[in-house]
Amino acid sequence: MADRIGNKRRYITGFDGLRAIAVIGVIIFHLWPNVMTGGWLGVPLFFVLSGYLITDILIQEFEKTGTIRFGSFYLRRVKRLYPALVVMLLATATAIAFFARPLLYNLRAILVTNLTYVYNLWATVNGDSYFEQWGSASPFTHLWSLSIEGQFYLVWPLIVWLLLKLKVPRVRVAQGLMGLALISALLMAIYYNPTNINRAYYGTDTRLFALLIGTALAFVWPSAKLNGRAKRQTRRLLNLAGFLAMAMLVFLFFTLNGEWAGTYYGVMFLASLDIAVIIGVTAHPATVFSHWLNNRLLNYIGTRSYSIYLYQLPVFVFIDIWTKHNHHLAIGLWKIVLVLILAELSYQFIEKVFKRYYGVENIFNFDSVRIYTAFVMMMAVMATSGVLTPQASGPKPTTKLEQRLKQNKKLLAAQNAKALSAQQAGKKATSQTEETSSQSASTAKGAISIAGGATSAVARKYNLTDTQYQAVKSKTVTAIGDSVLLDAGPSLQELMPSTVVDGQVGRQPNEAVTLVQQMAAKGTLAQNLLMVIGTNGAISPAQVQTVMAAAGSQRQVYWVGVAADRAWISGNNSVLLAAQKKYANLHLIDWPDAAKAHPEWLGPDKVHPNVQGSIQYTSLIAQKIAEN
Length: 628
Hints:
The protein has helices spanning 15-31, 42-65, 70-99, 107-115, 119-126, 144-165, 170-191, 198-202, 204-220, 232-255, 261-283, 288-292, 296-303, 305-323, 329-355, 367-387, 400-430, 434-448, 455-461, 466-472, 483-495, 509-522, 541-551, 569-582, 591-597, 611-626; strands spanning 477-481, 499-503, 528-532, 556-560, 586-589. The chain is mainly alpha-helical. The chain folds into two domains: 15-393, no CATH class; 400-626, Rossmann fold, CATH 3.40.50.1110. A five-stranded parallel β-sheet has the order 2-1-3-4-5, with helices on both faces. It is globular, with a radius of gyration of 29 Å. This is Peptidoglycan/LPS O-acetylase OafA/YrhL.
């Protein structure tokens, strides 16, 4: 980065390479989250890098001029960030108005909050989860990070100027900044809520630690003081630290799930410290990282990383809509190509144009800026057709599916209490003497059985023989899953009244695994465990292994295969098929083949069973349970 601050500052080779790594990680995460689970760490990489660079620039300016020219700094930031953002927002709003009207909801608020750099604050309450993979995915979700950076750019120059003016020792400043970073990380842990991570993930206070780590590094590791002729021992130590830190970052890119509780209880903070080591090593001109990360390909991507970041999600969302979520590899590669084309256009005709523009006084003599202004005005007129629609002023209305799931959750909660009571009665019976056990078991059966005359009717409804029905009706089951389980839960409890159903919209596999462990530790897992998970994210063999270990060899575990049109679904079903061969008490229920043969069993989203489908879904589960 080479901002103009009086005398020309040293260009830090390798930083464009770090920007390239950051944006590549984010893109792969958005395209193939099952391939690069932690690719979202590209955002903390951007944060730490921005904190370091901006602080380094401000310190050097103060040292050379005795002050910080705030007007010049803000003008540089506005030219660097605002024009490309405005064009992307208007272009996306126009595309929504003409080609994707279901995305109109909340459009006004989204545009206004992004233009004023408070979108992340709005998103903590109103936005989709950054890890949400279903529903009407927003093409603006990724912009939360730009708002945090915009807020940082607004106040940080004043703070740096004051600290330097007061001549506070640099080491003391760095220590204070790291203290504030720790407080920010603590706030992330406090605000973390596994059912809604938006407050912890999008909050300025909870994400500030990455920027603060970068600023602290700049005070104790200024680029202008780094000597390219360092001693051999120093170079070796720096290179070793860089290799270890980079290896850790690559490992986290492929393994760190953004919805794990541990991520918010310190792992993201530690990852940001690891990133700071990489940045510090790369900033030193004597290290191999300064040279290895300085190559033509990485520099090309790095210099265009801002525009690439801007356009990636709009392109991905629109192509998913138009191709009906076709996740073929070729589609993914075409998405990347289109993003690169749009980013190149943005870089050449917007970013570079405004980089050459230095004053307000000659705006009307600057041909490129006048052309740009006319172009933006034309897009603004087209975008207005969407912004002024009634839908753009409010949130998306609740769908019939959402209403049904909400109603089901209430019904399930009431029945869960009865089912849990019946399960506990059955457990109590097994701990008594044989005679007492026989009486208690009879009582427990009476508590959970359906009235005698209803037996054949219920069996017929779920396409079961009387033998199958008798085998399953008194089974004790713990069912854990996502919204698909919520959808089918009432049917499961009608057929097997002693079933405790714990379903949650948007639940990720790691959440379900944690819940199984917690219930096993409390002794509340029934003799039969039903897993309905994998719709919202990738299932790993390690997660299946954890579930099976928590369940133990004496329980029967039933896992429903996943039917949906997302990239990770086939991988999930393959993992489950392989696990079924490994564990004798794991039984896979083949819902994908049934749904493929009977698409009429699925609702409009082609994921959740409709009323008829819920009956068939429950029937498949019951038939498998009856076999054991």
